[in-house]
Write a structure and sequence with these properties.
There is one protein chain. This protein is mainly β and about 210 residues long. It has two helices and 15 strands. The chain has helices spanning about 95-100, 205-214; strands at about 15-20, 20-30, 45-50, 55-60, 65-70, 75-85, 85-95, 110, 115-120, 120-130, 135-140, 145, 160-170, 175-185, 200-205. The strands form two sheets. Strands 2, 3, 4, 5, 6, 7, 8, 9, 10, 11, 13, 14 and 15 form a 13-stranded mixed sheet that branches. The termini are far apart. Mean pLDDT is about 85; it is low at about 1-15.
Length: about 210
């Protein structure tokens, strides 16, 4: 593990490996014609990603509510917490469920473009890739930092650096995630524990059946 202050320039450092810490992204929505700040449930939302060598926790907080995804690479198990409109649901997952949930991004092959761009003090390279369902990913990443836990986000498993800003195109909208904070303090192991009460619990398969019935 290494220590950096948030928002500092790290271009002068040799390549580092991030083994533990927290990444926080701000989220905005734009139209594909360049119009900014389109209103939407995710506009102004934040995504916090907590990482260790073998565990990950992603928390999306938006106007409608909060959704948390936790996964343990070693055990192959995890859970998803959905907290919307006063309802709290916990969906348990296996390694097979995790692969199914992320299959659209499996095998993304990013092609790095020439040149660099400075974003929030990070010297970034631009890379693009297309998912299995045709959605276009544009990522600006800092190649001086590698994330050890490659399974925290299947879309970036083959990305050779830290995602500083990434864009996902869907129809005529662009969802932009920009790194707003980097904290590399040691994490409390309890952050990756499942809640003991307060949530309705169901399996991933049960939740998929429930969605089909809606």
């Amino acid at each position: 593990m290494f220590v950096l202050n948030s928002f500092c320039s790290i271009s002068l450092f040799a390549q580092k490996v991030l083994t533990e810490g927290m990444l926080k992204y701000s989220i905005s929505i734009e139209s594909s014609n360049g119009e900014k700040q389109i209103s939407g449930a995710l506009n102004g939302a934040t995504l916090s990603v907590y990482l260790t060598k073998n565990k990950s926790r992603s928390e999306m907080v938006s106007t409608p509510g909060k959704e948390t995804t936790v996964f343990d690479n070693k055990s192959g198990r995890g859970f998803i917490l959905k907290e919307y409109s006063g309802q709290k649901l916990m969906i348990t997952t296996t390694a097979e469920n995790w692969a199914q949930k992320n299959q659209v991004n499996t095998g993304l092959n990013f092609e790095t473009q020439p040149g660099t761009t400075n974003i929030a003090g990070y010297v970034c390279k631009k890379a693009v890739a297309k998912s299995n369902n045709g959605k276009l990913y544009t990522v600006y990443y800092d190649p001086s930092i590698l994330i050890e836990n490659k399974q925290y986000n299947n879309a970036f498993s083959q990305l050779a650096g830290l995602p500083v800003q990434y864009e996902l195109s869907s129809g005529n909208l662009i969802f932009k995630y920009t790194l707003a904070g980097l904290n590399l303090d040691m994490l409390n192991a309890s952050r990756f524990d499942s809640p003991k009460s307060g949530f309705r619990v169901m399996s991933y398969e049960e939740n998929q059946q429930l969605k089909k019935g809606e």
